[in-house]
Design a protein that fits this description.
- The chain has three helices and no strands.
- It is mostly helical.
- It has one domain.
């Protein structure tokens, strides 16, 4: 008995589309997850609009850190397997640290922008009240 192999071509290049859409779908998923963290976890709740800059910052930073991690793994795979295993653990921990750092920096960006909006709102002169008509 042999293993049957089925080869067929789709009318559209599904594999190429998935390759191109990988980064946008990942970015969208990261933005949604970061928004959930930034909106639901602080003591003083933020709106989605207030949390969006930090979520976008986190998403872009995470994708860049991941691409750099992939570059490192692809570039330095020629070393002795023992050293590679130890170095991979250190690099993975560094990547996890950068992920947490980016999440914190995104939250800090949201806090800075929120504080500046509050400062500008307090500094803006109040509109004069309309005169009473008698």
């Amino acid at each position: 008995a042999g293993i049957a192999e089925v080869n067929f071509q789709l009318a559209f290049p599904l594999q190429a589309w998935i390759g191109y859409l990988n980064v946008p779908f990942t970015a969208f998923a990261l933005i949604v997850l970061a928004l959930a963290l930034y909106v639901l976890t602080p003591e003083n709740y933020s709106t989605i609009r207030q949390a969006l800059p930090g979520a976008i910052f986190f998403s872009i930073g995470w994708i860049i850190a991941t691409k750099l991690f992939q570059f490192y793994v692809a570039r330095y795979d020629r070393y002795n397997p023992t050293y590679l295993a130890l170095a991979s653990i250190v690099v993975l921990l560094t990547w996890m640290y950068l992920t947490c750092l980016l999440l914190l920096l995104g939250g800090k960006l949201n806090a800075i922008l929120r504080r500046e909006r509050e400062r500008m709102r307090r500094a803006a002169p109040l509109a004069p009240e309309p005169a009473a008509v008698s």
